[in-house]
Amino acid sequence: MRQKQLNGLAFFILIALFIIVIRLKEMPQSEGISIQNSGQVQSLELLTAMKNETAEDENSSQTSIDEVPDYTRMYPELYTVYSASLKTTLPKKVAYLTFDDGPSENTFKVLDILEENDIKATFFLVGSAIKKKNEDSLERMVHEGHTIGIHTYSHKCNEIYCSVERFLNDFNTVYQQIYDITGERVHIYRFPWGSNNSYSKNIKDALMEEMDRRGFTCYDWNVDTKDSVGKPSAYSILRNIRKDIKRQDHPIILMHDASVNDLSVQILPDVIKLLKELGYDFDSLDNREPYQFRW
User: Fold this and answer.
1) Residue 118 has what pLDDT?
2) Among residues 16, 122, 278, 279, which is most buried (max CB within 10 A)?
3) Percent of the chain with pLDDT over 70
4) Which domains does the chain have, with CATH numbers?
């Protein structure tokens, strides 16, 4: 009887051991599958996140490209490098004679007067005024050490200030025109009616930013002779200079040398004499720090 009980107990123990062994064998396999499945899930999540991040980068890059105005890709050769002088390095009193709206037959006369007085000046040219008969005046400017600036091709407010694209198109025309005649690249310019005018108010900020980005420098004026406004006289021109030149150590003097500005040529020797009496030397604008109107 006791022997049967022992045999039954032994059989029960063997069964229990067999079950334990089976469970132990199954446990690692089950955990391995769980770990593997977890790893697959994590891998899929990581891959999805990477794809989403790449897509966001691509969208961001595409958005940045789309935000760049088309005019920045216009005229890839319309760039310059201009190193403007600093005011602190200039002599105490230097006057800068500038002439807008040329060239014309008057430009030759202006050049003669400047040569007689050994004075350098700056000419802001209008491209549509450049003709075969006055191309030599541009060559003289370069040869005699004057500075050439751009005053647009058309000088028409309803054309140049319609958009940044229209301005660049106009500007590039005269830029290439001057280069073809003189072999010189222009670095400076002056807006018709100045940088702060009512015609360009809708594009002013974008236009100035684009011109700066391309390396061109704008020069306005701080002494206006008003030789092209209304009915000027020799007296009014000299009076306007005396009025505006007060407290100006480095005045930029606005004059004109278009075909209608005969008086400007006639009064120029007196203007030079007045400035000398006031203690000014003379130079061209590329030796002066940039100056723009306050906006």
Assistant:
1) 98
2) 122
3) 75
4) 87-287 (3.20.20.370)
CA dist 12 → 22, 25, 26, 49, 110 (Å): 15, 20, 21, 55, 126
Strand (E) or helix (H) holding 271: helix 262-277
For 54-92, what is each residue's pLDDT tens digit? 445 555 444 455 577 999 999 999 999 987 766 556 678
Within 13 Å of residue 284, how many CA atoms lie on the same side as its CB? 19
CB atoms within 10 A of CB 19: 10
Task: Tokens 């105005």: give the residue.
Answer: 69
What sign has the CA pseudo-torsion 255, 258, 262, 265? positive
Going 39 to 44 to 50 to 53, the CA torsion angle's sign is negative
Q: What is the mean pLDDT of residues 103-109?
A: 98
